[in-house]
From TrEMBL:
This is non-specific serine/threonine protein kinase. GO terms for molecular function: ATP binding; protein serine/threonine kinase activity. It is found in: Cell membrane. Residues 62-343 form the Protein kinase domain. Transmembrane segments: none annotated. It catalyses: L-seryl-[protein] + ATP = O-phospho-L-seryl-[protein] + ADP + H(+); L-threonyl-[protein] + ATP = O-phospho-L-threonyl-[protein] + ADP + H(+).
Length: 361
């Protein structure tokens, strides 16, 4: 399907197939083992099973004061467990027609997250499956999601070093998923976006929402799907036009988040005309031109927090991540290395400027 047509789609689409012979379709964990694969990692955490009563107690019967946000899956509440641990409880609220898809996403989330362990992935503490009710219990992230901060909902305006730290943390999380180190099979997140980057007290980034994640069997570069899943604005154009899902689809979405960090704009702005709604189309031609680049830098970025050199390097990385041809995009481990260098160059440049100012005064 051509890229342009995707705008007419719903925000998110989900596969309905339950075919157990297809490695891309959700299967219970015991079916995951592919013939020539290493055994999958054992569950590390996330296996605590809660009762409905415990969920009600934790969230004050899902009171509005505890509401943290609402997404496509349902509402998310702040809660306190009997142990005193503060958590986020995601309650599945889907119409009966979508219950089967919701159940699949719920299981994928539990299966995948409980096998992963990385400082840049949100931890799943447990779940509740009581009758038809489903809840996921996560570690609580006090600074909410990245998009709210960029859209000026958060009180603290993020300076350039904190944005670089978020980009680096998210890159490390994705590189870990893609490298297959813990699960034994590389994982495509498929729904990477700024609302799925959560921030802790130190503004460290953790990736959430693995319900659409897919295992990428080794030796296979792509999987062809009939149904394109994800969120509009972050879709890899190659994936939407050919149905070919690759690890590089996450790299494209990562590039979109880099552009959000640089400009403070949303991935999609429906108030703009059809050719200007998408952030990639808006800024693609300005990223390699320093003069034009200055005009798109987020006005909320404190001027004394960045060097133009680091902005130019960051814009260059973002423009390669959002290349239409997926082979021209860097890998996530390549992005980690470049962002480390950009962070270092920025600190060094600012340190030199400070040194210069002190000598002049
Ligand atoms: N572990 C958490 N700690 C703190 N806040 C959270 C946590 N998980 C989710 N939230 C908040 O709840 C909001 C809703 O999350 P949810 O994942 O349901 O939807 P979304 O990511 O915004 O959108 P979509 O469903 O389209 O992916 C998030 O945007 C975030 O602000
Ligand atoms: Mg989310």
């Amino acid at each position: 399907m051509p890229f342009g047509l995707v705008s007419a789609w719903n925000k998110r689409r989900r596969s309905k197939s339950q075919d157990h012979s297809d490695p891309w379709i959700y299967k219970p964990a015991e079916f995951w083992q592919l013939d020539d694969q290493k055994p999958l990692a054992k569950r590390r955490h996330g296996s605590t099973v809660f009762t409905l009563k415990e969920m009600e107690e934790a969230t004050g019967s899902f009171s509005d004061e505890n509401l943290l946000g609402k997404g496509g899956f349902g509402r998310v509440y702040k809660g306190v467990l009997r142990s005193g641990e503060v958590v986020a409880v995601k309650k599945m609220e889907l119409p009966p027609s979508k219950a089967a898809e919701g159940e699949r996403e719920f299981r994928v989330e539990v299966d995948i997250l409980s096998r992963l362990d990385h400082p840049n992935l949100v931890s799943l503490i447990g779940y509740c499956a009581d009758g038809k009710q489903r809840f996921l219990v996560y570690e609580y992230m006090p600074n909410g999601n990245l998009q709210d901060h960029l859209n000026r909902i958060g009180e603290v305006k993020m300076d350039w070093p904190s944005r670089l730290k978020v980009a680096l943390g998210a890159a490390r999380g994705l590189a870990y998923l893609h490298a297959s180190s813990d699960v034994g099979i590389p994982i495509v997140h498929r729904d990477f976006k700024s609302t799925n980057i959560l921030l802790n007290t130190n503004f460290d980034a953790k990736i959430s929402d693995f319900g659409l994640a897919k295992l990428m069997p080794e030796g296979e570069e792509a999987y062809v799907t009939a149904m394109v899943l994800g969120t509009f604005g972050y879709f890899d154009p190659e994936y939407t036009s050919t149905g070919k899902l690759t690890l590089q689809s996450d790299v494209y979405a990562f590039g979109v988040v880099l552009l959000e960090l640089l400009t403070g704009r949303s991935a999609v702005d429906l108030n703009q005309g059809p050719t200007d709604q998408n952030i990639v189309l808006q800024v693609r031609n300005t990223l390699s031109d320093r003069k034009k680049l200055r005009k798109i830098i987020d006005h909320d970025l404190p001027r004394n927090s960045y060097t133009m050199e680091s902005i130019a390097m960051f814009a260059n990385l973002a423009s390669r991540c959002v290349q239409i041809n997926s082979r021209e995009r860097p890998t996530m481990s390549g992005c980690v290395k470049e962002l480390q260098l950009i962070f270092y160059m920025n600190s060094k440049g600012l340190g030199m400027a400070l040194h210069h100012t002190l000598r002049m005064s």
